[in-house]
Amino acid sequence: MDHPYASYRSLFPVLASKIHLASCSQGAISKTVSEAMEEYLNSLLTTGVNWSQSIQEVEKAKKGFAKLIGAEPNEIAVLGSVSDIFSTIATSLSFEKGKNKIVTTDMDFPTVGHVWLAQRKFGANVSFIPSQQEVIPIEYYERFVTSDTLITSISHICYFNGFKQDIKAIAEIVHRKGSLLFVDAYQSAGQVPIDVKKMDIDILAAGTRKYMLGIPGMAFLYMKTELAEKWKPRVTGWFGQANHSKFDIHQLTPAPGARRFETGTPSFISAYAATAAIRLLLEIGVENISSYLNELAQFTLDYGQEKGLQVVGPLSADQRGAMTAFYAENAGQIESIMKERNIIVSARNDVIRIAPHFYNTKDEIRQAIDELATVLNTK
């Protein structure tokens, strides 16, 4: 398979000396992102204060993310992490009798379960949809989401094994039951197309350090405008106010749209990085990236099995994102060994995750799987 994005590889210095296949944990940093961060630092060094310029960069990042997911800029808020977003949303809910059920799945990232379980003391009834053979059958949503469900909280792509869910189909089910749909898109934003309007997503959270090719410190919250206007966040701050520069300590006036969920000063350097990274993703096109990664995912599945590795999760690339998980006892130790051999993969519990992005090649994946098979066979 020819590499359609070979001309972009020079933007990622790490690829000159290492095989970087850990986008599910941290995407490779490009020169454009590095230059954007340097721009932020240099402006501080030379001007001393760059507040206005930095605020503009935050707005650019919001607009870029809105375009990435088919939303409007006023439907986007920025917070420090996806965990912050989940906590902010959870504490904004009222758990009333007859409408107090929270439905999530046992395949979601632990933060999700932790946040929802913490709401039990406030009246939430938390229910976990169980996985079956490393996937969540679509019919389980019909069974577990009931008329008393307030919000259904799910991942688009599973962090552990790459299983991808049909968000549009799930949205139809949960909305018919009278539930809101909250999607964790941390493992999908930047690698698969997302259109929040066509998918009918009520709330979505995504961070910048994985497939969005940024750094930690900034996460994006999407919420439908008509929904946001009804909510009054209990976690707030001056950036969540209608006029944050008014400095009126006696008035609480939530900002319009999703911005009311913002709290304090965001990580400006992360905003610079996010703007540059999203610009690159939009330039290439997520549809194009997704098509290429689907080919890489199928190759990873096929070649991994050919080398005797045990796939964890779906065996078809159509049911997963770019990441493929292989069973590996002592995965953390194996990750370290692979790193010593200049191959960056990501361990979780008893799996090694191979997660390419558009800058990777089939030959890199082949070399990584060869090395992984060798390491596993010598353990």
From TrEMBL:
Keywords: Pyridoxal phosphate, Transferase. Its cofactor is pyridoxal 5'-phosphate. Residues 31-362 form the Aminotransferase class V domain. The keyword Transferase applies. The keyword Transferase applies. Pfam families: Aminotran_5. One of its GO terms (molecular function) is transferase activity. Belongs to the class-V pyridoxal-phosphate-dependent aminotransferase family. This is Putative acetyltransferase. It comes from Parageobacillus caldoxylosilyticus NBRC 107762. The lineage of its organism: Bacteria, Bacillati, Bacillota, Bacilli, Bacillales.
